[in-house]
Amino acid sequence: MKRFIKKITKFFSLTVLLFAIIWINLLIFPNNWSSSSFSITNNIKNHIESVKNNEILIIGDSRAVAGFNPKIIDSNKVYNLNIGGATPITGYFTLKKLLNSGKTPKLLIVSYAPFHLIEDDSYPRIIKEDFLNFNEISELYDEINSENDVFWRKDKFNYHKYNLVNRYKAYLLKIKFPIFFSAEIKNSKFLRKSENLKMTYDIKNQMGFFTYGKKDFSDLNNQEVELNTFNINKTISKYLTKLFRLANDNNIKLIYINTPFNEASKLNLNNSFLNNYEKKFNLYKKEFPEVIFYSQIYSYENKYFGDPSHLNKNGSKKFSNYVKGIIEHNKY
Description:
Layout: H1 2-28, H2 30-33, H3 37-49, E1 56-60, H4 62-67, H5 70-73, E2 78-80, H6 88-100, E3 107-111, H7 125-128, H8 134-142, H9 163-174, H10 182-188, H11 193-205, H12 234-249, E4 253-257, E5 261-262, H13 263-268, H14 271-287, E6 292-294, E7 299-300, H15 313-329
Parallel strand pairs: 1-2, 1-3, 3-4, 4-6, 5-7
Helix pairs in contact: 3-11, 6-12, 8-9
């Protein structure tokens, strides 16, 4: 019996030790296990904490990461604070962090794919990658009062009927509790440091710009084509309006600019999706007359896309010059 107890004790002790080693690695060495998105998120955090105070900042998702090239638009004034997979929820907290750090841009450009007004397909990555602090997590979960408020994919992160359970799951993510990081551990084996450090260098050098798609052509459909209609998520819509109001309350001029679809996706987009999207943005235009909207869904030729959703280098050059013209036209 004593031998059995010793074996159980030894096994338990080794299990606890292994768990502790994994937990410490998750907490202290994020470059070892994170995806490439961590480099983008961390660059934004570092930029916010730096002494730099750019006149024009861009907040959006991965299509904006690959579309807006600050070096083409105006390298002396512009910086790209976009995060792949982000929604206006992330955008609101990005602007709030900026203001809390004492930075107030003269112009804010906001850009989200229509798909990212429907759901956050990367959540809870913004918590796993330490973008949100505990107070921001609490603020976000105060907005989520029912299943109808959930803005994330439920197959990726289960929703519990008790909001307190959801909140504490988010807190456990924040402290890197290992049971929530099994996919990252399995996929990385804690061996991603060199590629993440290279990505960090590239992102910083390109001022937040990065091309996802590397092809010279894409005629495949983007995510919006798979949807029958456009139904904006309640929580995401709330945070988009909070973002607009926060900018206005701080005398920040705001322009909303859509990145283009590839030609194939625009042709195959459901009419109901397009009509409902336009109706929703017409309401935003009435509610926020101070915001300048270039929110229409339009397309570039397939040759300007590196994948179904993201512009390639030639596409970003064309689009960035278009954005440069918008900024000059509006005298910023």
